[in-house]
Amino acid sequence: VFPQVTAGGRANYYVSYRREPFAQIKLPKYSLPKDMHIISTDENQVFAAVQEWNQNDTYNLYISDTRGVYFTLALENVKSSRGLEGNIIIDLYEVCRIKGIFLANRKIDDQIKTFITYNKGRDWRLLQAPDTDLKGDPVVCQLPFCSLHLHLQLSENPYTSGSISSKETAPGLLVATGNVGSELSYTDVGVFISSDGGNSWRQIFEEEYNVWFLDWGGTLVAMKHTSVPIRHMWVSFDEGRSWSKYSFTSTPLFVDGSLVDPGIETQIMTVFGHFSLRSEWQLVKVDYKSIFSRRCNKDDYQTWHLHNQGEPCVMGERKIYKKRKPGAQCSLGRDYSHTVVTEPCVCGQGDFECDYGYERHSNNQCVPAFWFSPSSLSKDCSVGQSYLNSTGYRRIVSNNCTDGLRQKYMAKMEKCPGKAPRGLHILTTDGKLVTEQGHNATFVILMEEGDLQRTNIQLDFGDGIAVSYANFSPVEDGIRHVYKSAGIFQVTAYAENSLGSDTAVLFLHVVCPVEHVHLSVPFVAIKNKDVNITAVVWPSQAGTLTYFWWFGNNTKPLITLENSISYVFAVEGMNTVTVQVSAGNTLIQDTKEIAVHEYFQSQLLSFSPNLDYHNPDIPEWRQDIGKVIKRALAQVTGIPDEQILVAVFPGLPTSAELFILPHKNTTERRKSSEADLEQVVEVLFNALNQNLVQFELKPGVEVIVYVTQLTLAPLVDSSTGHSSSAMLMLLSVVFVGLAVFLIYKFKR
C-alpha cells in the first residue's frame, strides 16, 4: 500500500494484491486520512486502521470487500500508542483459531473501554465482568456502566507472554491482564481468563503475571511479573480454576523471560535471568514431564460448542471442538488433534454487513449514505454489458452461511442502463488553469454518469475554434490546443446523447511571459493628496496580470488587476514605491522613490545643444546627469542640496524639471517658510538666467543649463489641488493657442 497526496491535501491510498495492478482504495467519501496501517490481509480481506484528519491518539478500523478495494467502517476511535521503537500500535487483538472474534479498545468520552465482536466487526459489545472475585465474593458490575477491560498489546519481548495471549492449539482459551470498572486502568490490574471464547471471564490473579501455554495448550504455567527475584511458578490443569505451586530454583532469580514451545515433545521450559543485578545470565531448564501421571485417553476429553452469548451460529457455522477435561492431569502428546465438527447455518441478518456507501440505521437496515448514489455503481458500465447491483448488503467475508436471506441480500446481476450525460468535467492534464501563449494546452473530459463512447462531445476552446467528436472515446494523451493570443478564455465542453445533455465550463488564463516593468511616478508629490502611479509592462499584450503595490514600510501590499493606482502619502520625506507584476509563473518588479512635501516650486530646464549629441536616453544616464546638475546648482548658489531635486526627462531634446523644496526644519512655520522658499527660487532663477550654472560632461564638452522660457510655476501646496507639471502644460497650451490665433489674424 502506498499513499498519494492530492493538491487539496487529501491522501489517496493505492493497494496491490498478488502482483496485480495497483487500485485506489475506496474509503467513505468524506474520510480524509492522514495515516493508514494495514493490520491484516488474511482470508481475502484487508483490515486497515485509518487516522482521520480530526484524530490524534485514535484510529478508525475499516474492513474491505474480497477485492480489498471498497472499505466500510467497522469501529471508530480505536486506541493507539507508540511502541519502544516509535512504531504505531493499534489496540486490536484477533483471537487465535476462531475466525471472526476480535477484541478492541475504543475511546468513548475520554474513557477507554474494551469491546468484542464475533462477526468481524459487524456488531460490538462490552465484556461482561466476572460474577465473583478471587475470594468468591459477588462482583457488582452492571453493563454498560461497568464492564471488564483488557490490555491488548502483544509483547514486544518474545520471551514474555504479553498482556493478552491465545493459542491455535487451545481454541476458546484467552488469558489477559485487565481490570473491572468504568474504563481501562493501568494501576489496579489483575489477570483474567476465558474458557469459552470471551463470553464469560474469571479472575485468576490479583497482580500482573506472565502466563504461558504448555503441552499443546492443555496446561497453563504462570510466573509473577515483578522486579524482585522469585523461585516459584504456578501450574494449572483446569484452565486456571486451581493452581499448584512449584519451585524451579533453590536460589531466587531475577527472571528476564522464558522460552516455551507449547508443542515441544521434550516438554521442557527454559527460564533465564540473573541471581543478582551484577551476575551473569543463568539458564534454568524446567522439565515438567514428571507432573503428568500418564498420557490422555478418550475418556479425558470433552466437546466444546463455540457460541456468542448462547447463539450457536458464529460466522455462519456451528463449530464443535475437542478439549481436555478440566482437571485431567494427563499429557496430550504430539499426536493430539483438535477435532472440529463444522455445520453451516441458515443465513440470517447478522451474517450480512452494510456494503460500501451504505450505513446501518437504528432499525438495523442498511441505507445509502447521504453522499452515495446507488446508481453510481453502473457509471462505468456500457450499454449491452452487465454489472452487479448491490442491495446495500454484503455477506461478511469468511462467513459460511447458506440459503435463508442469502438470495435476498446478495448483489444482483443487471443489464447496464442507458444514461444521459451527467457530471461532465473538463480539466487540464497538469491541473493548472494557466498556460502560456504559443504552448500546448491539453484538456481531459470526464463524465460521472453516461456512456462516453455513445455520446457526442463538442469542445469549444473560447478563441473561435471548436472540435466535435461522435461516439467519443477518451483520448489517452488528452485534447491539445495552442492559443495564439493572451487573455482569459471560456472553454466549454458539451456532451449529448439520445437521453439528454450536460455542459461543463473552464476559464483558462493564457499569459505571455512579461519581460520588463517600468514604474511611472511623479518625482515630487504633495502630502495628503492623491498621486497617480502607473506600471508600464512589456510586452503590452501579456494577458491578465496581477499587480502588487508596496508603499513605504507597509508589510501588506495592495493588489489590483489594473496597471495604475491612486495613493495618498501621509508622511513627508522620501517614500518608496514598489510594484510586482505576476503573470503565470513569472514575477517581476520595479522600485521608485517619491519626495513628499506640503508645498514646493518647480521650473523647467533646458540645455545647450551639445548635450543632445551625448544623450544615450537610458535611465541610468538621466539619473547621473540629474545629480551633476543638482551639484552644480548647489555650488553656484550655496543652497543646500536637500532643497534641490532635478529630474531629467526621457527623449530629445534633453530637458529636465527643477524642484525647489522647503527646508526640512521649517515645515511648521508655514508662512515664513514660503517666503524663504521664494528667496531660494529667486537666487536659483538669477543664477540660471545669467548662465552661471554649467557642468563639464567630458573634457572639452561644457554644458550650460538654462531656464526654459515659460513663466515660473507658482507655489504648489495642499490647498491648490494642481501639480506643477499640470500648470506648466496648461500654460503651454495657452501660449500655443494665442500664437495660432495671431497667425490666423495676420493672414486675413
Automatic annotation (TrEMBL):
Domain PKD positions: 460-504
InterPro entries, sorted: Ig-like_fold (IPR013783), PKD_dom (IPR000601), PKD_dom_sf (IPR035986), Sortilin_C (IPR031777), Sortilin_N (IPR031778), VPS10 (IPR006581), VPS10-sortilin (IPR050310)
Annotated compartments: Membrane
Membrane topology qualifier: Single-pass type I membrane protein
Record-level GO cellular component terms: postsynaptic density membrane
Superkingdom assignment: Eukaryota
Bilayer-crossing regions: 726-744
Main location: membrane
Keywords for this protein: Glycoprotein, Membrane, Receptor, Repeat, Signal, Transmembrane, Transmembrane helix
Similarity annotation: Belongs to the VPS10-related sortilin family. SORCS subfamily.
Protein's UniProt name: VPS10 domain-containing receptor SorCS3
Organism: Antrostomus carolinensis
